[in-house]
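I'll show an entry:

:::
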Amino acid sequence: MSITAPVGSLSNAVAGPLARRNVHYGWVVAAVTFLTMLVTAGAVGAPGVLILPLQKEFGWDTATISSALAVRFVLFGLMGPFAAQLMNRYGPRRIVLLALFLIVGGLLTSLFMSEVWQLVILWGVVVGIGTGLTALVLGATIATRWFSRSRGLVVGLLTASSATGQLIVLPLLAALTEHLGWRAALLVICGLLLAAGLAVTALMRDRPEEMGLAPYGETAVTGAVAPPAVNGSALGVLVEASRTGVFWVLFATFFICGASTNGLIQTHFIPLCADYGIGPVQGASVLAAMGVFDFIGTVASGWLSDRYDNRWLLFWYYGLRGLSLMFLPFSDFSFIGLSVFAAFYGLDWIATVPPTVRLTASRFGREKANLVFGWVFAGHQLGAATIAYGAGLSRTALSSYLPAFFAAGALCILAAILVMTLSRPGDRRDVSPAALPTRG
């Protein structure tokens, strides 16, 4: 498999040896994407570490801080379909660099904030838009463009990067915040984001055709990049997809997925632990342990999604997650109880993503998959925003997070039931006819 006219001297230097070893350049692009999503996961998860320091310094209550985080979650999700459209038009590389610039700018400016409205603008709006441009839609775009074979595995690896980011970054941020303050922690995040930007500039490419390659697992090189008009607009694809039952099932279950992960655990787990006498570093360490199990579970989920009925995978993931959330209040927050929760919950934290991406691609086609998944992911973040604020309100009004955890657990059981209403693989009755010719 030859490589012709690669763009950029460093990518050229890397591509040649890879070709001689019969290693597809898509794995380099996947690695750079993994790094980018890993670092931006640190920016997404940072507020969970910083809620308590902000309360201490500014006197803001949990509900007030959570309102800014809810804005960020909404924008983080709503940017998904438009990020996909921008990537289709301008290429993932340019959009990722724009996103990193926005995140760094928002975090650096927030070092000087003193009012709640500044928190909402910087952490809610600016960081929300920036992280939304590099969310799971980026991984779905890279996986569907660069990989035909092992696509589910690649989605699993890229999705797991957020767990790895949590594993590496959150305990570091908690320790820095405790010893040097929250501003020092944000500076570290900014440094990591700039390093990711350098890797993207040097090595990321938009499509395999730019390197004279076919997607991994295929042999025919088209030699041309599909024009943006083929992929449609974000709103046009939404109108088309919304006519199908499968879209609304995926949207609803991903709403519940976001409510039970990013919105609840990632945002409020450390403050919840504080209510039971567990410090922020120890709470972040439990999150890190979840990250270890989630990395294993999500990569395994990607492998399984290439081989088994994705509906049944989602049934078990949502069902087990719901049971784990209902178990947490009865764990007594002891070492053993939290360890059991970290393992049980961590294994399917975001294991739902690979089966959801594969269902989206199989029902709506390769070229439209990232746009449709962008809207499904918007549902994920709307769920996250709803419970991020709702759990904070529960803590402020009822002096307890536990009602939010029971509600999230019950919703997960509902999601497990909903996903089984999807038609069997190969049954196209839920698929828009316009999407069928481009199945990937």
